[in-house]
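Moderator note: this is an archived Q&A kept for reference. The question asked for a predicted structure of one protein chain; the sequence and the answer are reproduced below.
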Amino acid sequence: MLTVGDKFPAFNLTAVKGGPEGLEGPGKSFVEISSETDADKWKIVFFWPKDFTFVCPTEIAAFGKLNNEFADRDAVVYGVSTDSEFVHLNWRVHNNDIRDLPFPMLADVKRELSTALGILDKNAGVPLRATFIVDPEGTIQWASVNGLNVGRNPQEVVRVLDALQTDELCPCNWNKGGDTLNPDQLFKAA
């Protein structure tokens, strides 16, 4: 699996647009998203195993509720699974929790991005619940993976993004606005 310090793989995937434009129907709802899209922004790229399942929409909806917080931090959110853009669209239309999703749902149908990242479950052949924070230079700065049955905490992704963007040493359980660590001060106190 690719991890912190690795370059996020180049990709070009079809996606269902975020927001109301994503519900306009085939031919109008789709857009190509590549690794060059939003090149100057931080990227939150998270994967789920399958559309029309149980844990996945709870996570997707939770990321959607935090979309403005990510945007305030100059970050974009991309959700990805190996389902097609048509399946994504159908799921959005028929699931009230994700109908108004503000970010795009990318279709990694050929499993190229999931494979390049090393996040496919060895038995099920679907992506694990992987989350990556990628800096504007395309370098992975944080990676987290959960098994297929356990949902993640999107609020923790916001917290880690805040910490990464300080470019400081952040102690355990640090939250935005909290004190960072200054090694010079620590050594003087000793």
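Archived answer notes: The chain has a mean pLDDT of 95.
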